[in-house]
Amino acid sequence: MTNAFEKLQQALRKLPGVGYRSSERIALHLLLGKPEQLQALVSALGDASRTIRRCARCGNLSEDSLCSICSDPKRDHRSVCVVESVPDIVAIERSGSWRSGYHVLHGRLSPMQEIGPDDLNLSSLFARVESGEVDEVVLALSNDVEGEATCHYIQEHMPSGHKVRVTRIGFGIPSGGGVLYADSVTLKSALDGRRAY
């Protein structure tokens, strides 16, 4: 194969979920099977890189200073759901279970990967709390050691002098799943997050 093809394949392999065979298949498809799609993809990537940025308030993707969620007057912006990444917003929005605001951290604390508090979108969260625009912070982070550490850090470093309710989403057995097939962490979270029935 040519040097340019190898470079294209290496670039594709850097995408999440794309391995050697997938990158080869995508590259061949774009170059030989559907060359007109290649130019459309290049154009779309260029447009996106020029126009899409982080929302100034929450960190979501936006083409304006505020994303469509932050600029929606029908939402209750006094409650903020803190998530790790933009795809988490997409999943929650798809469920239709949250009609308030968000805050995207763009990661979570991970000493093993050298990700500390300064690497996350934490200062703007604390600034939102300090400004008095937030009454409740709902932590919707992963139910693992790094997610728990991030939640603990947020709660410990919440600006003092501001009465903000900090809650954590409940975790448990997925709908249709049984106790028999749940792991111990899921069962503990399900029991700890129980509510009146």
Describe this structure in words.
The protein is built from seven helices and six strands, in the order H-H-H-E-E-E-H-E-H-E-H-E-H. By secondary structure, it is an alpha/beta fold. The protein has two domains: 49 residues, Helicase, Ruva Protein, domain 3 (Orthogonal Bundle), CATH 1.10.8.420; 109 residues, Dna Topoisomerase Vi A Subunit, Chain: A, domain 2, CATH 3.40.1360. The strands form two sheets. It has a four-stranded parallel sheet with strand order 4-3-5-6. The N and C termini lie far apart (63 Å).
What layout of secondary structure does this protein have?
Blueprint: H1 3-13, H2 20-33, H3 35-51, E1 53-54, E2 61-62, E3 76-83, H4 86-95, E4 100-104, H5 123-130, E5 136-139, H6 145-156, E6 165-168, H7 184-192
Parallel strand pairs: 3-4, 3-5, 5-6
Antiparallel strand pairs: 1-2
Largest pleated sheet: 4 strands, parallel
Strand adjacency order, main sheet: 4-3-5-6
Q: How many structural domains in the coordinates?
A: 2
Question: What's the architecture of the largest domain, going by CATH?
Answer: 3-Layer(aba) Sandwich
Helix content: 40-55%
Structural class: alpha/beta
Briefly characterize the structure.
The protein has 197 residues and is an alpha/beta fold. It has helices at residues 3-13, 20-33, 35-51, 86-95, 123-130, 145-156, 184-192, and strands at 53-54, 61-62, 76-83, 100-104, 136-139, 165-168. The protein has 7 helices and 6 strands, in the order αααβββαβαβαβα.
